Amino acid sequence: MICVSIAQKTQEEALAAIERSARVAKALELRMDVIGQGDLTELMEACRQASPDIKIIVTCRRPEESLLSVALSAGAARKTISQAEKMALFRQAATLGADFIDLELACGENAIKKMRAFIRRLKSPTKIIVSWHDLSRTPSLARLKSIFHLGQQTGADVVKIVPFARQPKDNLKTLGLLAYAKTQKIPLIAMCMGDEGKISRVLASFLGSYVTFATLPGVGQSAPGQLTVGAMKEIYRLMEKGESAARPELANPPQHNFVLLGNPVGHSLSPLMHNRALKELSIDGHYSACRVEDLSAAVTGIRGLNLRGASVTIPFKTAVMEYLDSIDEDAAALGAVNTIVNERGILTGYNTDWLGLILAVKDRMAIAGKTFVVLGAGGAARAAVYGLQKEGARVIIVNRTEKKGRALAVRFGCSFYPLSEVKKICADCLLNTTSAGMFPDIEQSPVPSSVLNHFEVVADVIYNPLQTRLLQEALAQGCQIISGLEMFVRQGAGQIKLWTGREAPLALMRKIIQERLENLEF
Ligand code: ATR
Known about the structure:
alpha/beta, 19 helices, 19% strand, globular, binds 2'-monophosphoadenosine-5'-diphosphate
């Protein structure tokens, strides 16, 4: 079972990390000693909302057993958590039905037994992990075995032993303990911290460790030596199938063929755009749309058919992440993948949606230091907010449904206004990411035309019709406009660059799509 530790310094950051990690891990460990002002109820709710079957481990590590705490307190004095506060937190976790609570052996046998009695009285399903860490060394196997027995005597459901590896042979001692635990019929989590201990993190799960801890790109390690979930999964894949079976493509690099995975895909303009671009670049390949029913099988097909890559569209941009071997940092931060690149059987997920949008805007106005109003709170809004903030803009989110809008605003630390209050805002640019005004509802506009003179620039992610009612009204008010066509073409150009390493023929792609859309005009 791969577990990602949520060890962010604020509740907001922790909530964002939960959302990303729950998609790829089987368990999440909430490090309540690190998450400042952590609200356990909200965090556990977020875990379950992100993935109903996810296992939740609640931990409140004492600083003496955490290298992360040592690193954090080097910067600033951190609040110390008393044993009484810690036990109260664990009682809360058991009451909320956490799957596991992690108590250090150092809490004392009495405290652990009292907690067991509390859980029994509560009839809670919560299990107790009794843990032991050594931040500086790995003792002898005999000593590790006696620590294991001390843990066992407390009535632990699972024992966890994590020493620090100074040299490669420390891994052998710790992994040897896993074989011993099997004879004792009690689940054990065992691995070594530190760079020298990395190998133990890989081998531990093959040798029966109950849990292995991994990290996500951009989420940050909770202990030194952790590998990413993608790297772990790739290793499992190789170990389970054998290297030659897992990578038949090694001698046979992928062809330049591509698919669009989505459902529905019938009206997509991507095949037209990409096939013209491939032809222009004299690349002998083809791009086809594929209506997907079984996403896992479709991703397997990318490897099996030796395709160079894929685009991913609604409704799979998030779901696809768990089938990939690694996720680029921006895509991981956004929680959405729209592009897959196949490097000899290794599938990496990227996101060019946010980049396409930013490049289209940047082409027309400076972003840094400007204020943008983003209308909407779905996937497109998230990509926009992410990119705009990355470029140094101030973002205000405006959405029809307040709860959804506020949640996005909290996630990105922006301000929020309900749609009914949009008239109160003046800003440099208004960016529509909602579907209001999209074909066939072309008479709709997300905001009244009377507010448009509050903005210098008005942009719309919609490209069908080419000029939405919003953009027409903005032009009439003297605003500059940016059309969704530009964003669409630029996200496609980003895909071409990732797949082929070549600059896409942007002008040609724009012309082809514009012509097609003009011919669709009503
Ligand atoms: P996507 O992932 O493509 O961005 P989505 O997740 O369905 O799509 O989100 C669409 C967004 O557009 C939502 O924020 C939605 O507002 P609600 O949160 O109130 O549902 C917004 N939206 C859709 N149609 C709208 C309309 N006619 N007026 C205003 N907002 C609209």
